[in-house]
Amino acid sequence: MDNTNRSSNGLGGLAQGWRHPRVVFFHMLFKLGALLTYIFCTVFSSSFIINFIVITVLIACDFWMVKNVSGRFLVGLRWWNQIDDEGNSKWRFESRKGGDPPDASESRLFWWSLYIFTFIWGVLGFFALIRLRLSYLLVVVIAILLNSSNVVGYRKCQRNATNQRQDVASAYISSHITQSLTQAVTSQLFRGQAASNNNNNNNNNNNARPSA
Fold first, then answer.
1. Would you place residue 151 in the very low, low, confident or very high pLDDT band (cuts 50, 70, 90)?
2. Could you tell me if 11 and 21 are in contact, meaning their C-beta atoms sit under 8 angstroms apart?
3. φ and ψ at 120, to 5 degrees?
4. Could you state, in order of their start, the residue ranges of all structural domains in the chain?
5. Residue 64: how many other CB atoms lie within 10 Å
6. Alpha-carbon span 203 to 22, nearest angstrom
7. Range 158-174 burial, b when 16+ CB lie within 10 A, else e
8. Helix 104-130 and helix 134-208: axis angle, to 10°?
9. Are 106 and 20 in contact (CB under 8 A)?
10. How far is CA 49 from the centre of its chain?
11. Is the pTM of this model over 0.85?
12. Is 31 in contact with 62 (CB distance < 8 Å)?
């Protein structure tokens, strides 16, 4: 069964062509849900508290989805921040080892959605500031911080994975060159030893011949 057929299962054919259609669906659902709810929330409710809670929950769901699910399936990456015993914050990265490489379409969707939605939240924050909607500006700041955390985390994770691949490739090349040089030197030593033995044998044969 090919990827197109698998993509249509359970989604009514709306996500045909994706390798992980459900992940793509929820990845975009929470992003669009938080954004559209922020834009149109005052049409349906005049209560800032209700709007704040709903939008913040959607933003948090989007952050969790991208950090723990979307990144692993769509680009084969995962990051987290860990506090050590001394209270220092350390970045931790994880990348897919072996298996199929990430799907090109899913990878583009993942990266572009990170950048575009972070930019859109920044624009909305600018308009909230100039219109002095300071209460809703707090919501936008939360969205920008969480989206930016994923952008920074995944960029660092991608660089770390690239460095690891380069280190593996360099180690393989160095090992191959060392092995080739070792074989060449060993071969030369054996040839030199064989030539020396042949010369000694010839000398012994000449010395052993009786004088005429």
1. very high
2. yes
3. -60, -45
4. 3-156
5. 13
6. 83
7. bebbeeeeeeeeeeeee
8. 150
9. yes
10. 37
11. no
12. yes
